[in-house]
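ok here's the first one, seq then struct tokens
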Amino acid sequence: MKAVQTALRASVLALAMSAALAAEQDTAARLNEMRAMQAAPDEKAAAEQRRQLDNIWRYFGDNKASALPVLRSQLAAELRKAKPNQLMLLDVGYFLRAQGEPSDKALSTQALLAIDPESSAIAAQSQQLFRFAHAAAQDKDARLLPLIDRAFLRKSVTVFVPQHGYTVDETSVCIYLYGPFGAVAERHLRGLLRDEAVAKRVLEILMWVGSPESVPSVSALLASDDADIFARAATFMLRAGGVEGRAELEKLDPRKLQGKQRDLALELRAQARAATFEALADQLRESPQAGAAQRRQPRLDEASARAALADIYANYGRYQDVQPADLVQSMLPKEQLMEELLRIRERSYLRVSGEALADIDLTNTLINTLRYRDR
């Protein structure tokens, strides 16, 4: 009887080892299929290649227990090569990030940093690269910023989000990638303002991720002869520059400008002069988020404000059942309000949709309004 049990255990073990070996071989075969793919010559071919890669991903996902060890070892081996396969870096690296263990993040990030954005294989799969970079941006690893510069800031990449039927435009793609880095991204972007090739887009991004810290750097561009640069720099002052930005706009002398620049300077300078905490808070009360029956409420106490902010954070920046004007006028100290809103803004970047951008814009309006409080 004992001999029979031993034989059965040996048979089961042999079958398990055989199944594991077969799964490893299947994973390796799919990786070889990935390595053999050539750069897609056009959009149709790129879509077909993406379909093939999605099928490979699906297999990895359905067989994670056996696939993950193979993926780790093969990706590590690929990274040791002088010229690693770009699709291996992109797809295996992203799979480990999305479906691997927490310990796989380091290897995944190593793969992302090794990607060459100029590679034709990567250029054809820019939407997948966006998803990979967006997921990794949550770690706030500043080493990723030069890659984002090369792959997105200096290119025109749009991303289609099928679940929302929404296409993220070129600038918004960058906003979603730089946004999670917060002040680190702002400092990095300030260093690119003198680069004429990207200055306009950098200014547009700074309107979303910037602060009064960037006012001195941006103010230099108010002297630009380029009407588009001037318009973006002046708009930044009003949207993200706070009191310091208002002061820069008040310095503008429209008599020294011509045409559209002069008209815009007159308009923005007038808005700047009218900008006070009370006026900005009143504008919030007239916003679509403020219900007519709820526009005049008692001032929120600290506990209620904290609860409202916690609810917004838990909902990834959605302002459901929360009146924005009530937040900025609450009894919660200004510094704590600012800190919580900045946390909410960074969390909101995890949602890639038009609705999310509208919520981030509202958060930025609250932050800029608070910069005028107690001044």
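and now the second one, same deal
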Amino acid sequence: MKAPTCPAHQDLPSYPREREDYVDPPAVLRGGPPVSPLRFVEGSIGWLVTGYHEARQVLSDPRFSAERWRGDDTVQPIPAWIRSNRGNGPGTFMVMDPPKHGRYRSLLTRYFTVKRARDLQARVEDIVVEGLDTLEAAGHPADLVRHFALPVPSLVICELLGVPYEERRTFQSVAASIMRQDLGEAAYDEARVTLVRFFDALIKSKRQRPGSDLISELTSGTELRNEEIMGIGAQLLVAGHETTMNMLSLGAFTLLRNPEQTRKLRADPSLIPGAVEELLRYLSILNAFPVRIALEDAVIGGATVRAGQSVAISVPTVNRDPALVDDPDTFDVGRPRSAHLAFGYGIHQCLGQHLARTELVAAFRGLLDRFPALELAVPVEKVRMRTDMVVYGVHELPVTW
């Protein structure tokens, strides 16, 4: 039987931005084939992967490129002005293929190992305590995002990279702009210029007065050009606080909406590491799907993907596939650890996943211990979701205790 090919014109689901309730994947993406046609934001037609096994195949198959500008113009899910820049410039290894990708990643791996995360655990726990003190000092009601979920990962990544924490508002503002799904070319250019200036000054200072941080290591221990270090640093800085911030805030929101699960964690804190894995699976905070471009014809999940076509992976839907776990729509803090794809898969799997886990475990343990009566300070429907952002979460989370 001949595998189906992607149709050029027909009624198709469009690139989804809204979730059901507050975290469930859009219903239109579920119950169908694991690979199906999808209409992207600019009207182009590509493929959507919602099956767990099919997603792992695409993310680990060298026939699918992370360099998104390789595809045909008619099927690209990214704007033309990003394609014309061929991504975001030197050092942006997250959207590079081997061997370029491996060159950059090999320089960074030792900073993000399991051992490195364990070595940083005590400092991370100190930072969490500082964040809890800040939240408590704010008085209640207080915004858990502003006073806890944002500053904790920001301070961790600043110390790792060697970025002065007093300059955090600059990169936090840039990150908030870059992460908008409706970001236009002018706003992108403005944010990019701000980041370039920020890292240009930082790199110059590290070359003159190196420390024990990652940026100092890259400036003094490698032959990377400043433009490459900027690209690496910008990716790590933005991703390092945006993702963990939203997991903390959305995870706290989820625990507050599931008090029986929260009671289990307070009764048995040893469940917290497993609960973090369940939150990562259940929430799957990537709003914008990872995209790969087929370098040659390939059959995935019974669908024929032609060379040059775009393939998007719906991580929230993939992590709710019954092929991954039983009863996937149930949030269960006692669920055995699953091989979820919240951190991706293959050579582009999240470099900072071990550090993120360390932060999340410490943060949720500290939050539950410090505030046994923590609760929402507003009705559930008043919490603004980040439906407009690349990384999903909540804009603010007013809490009391």
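notes on #2: The two ends are 61 Å apart (CA to CA). The first strand starts at residue 35 and ends at 39.
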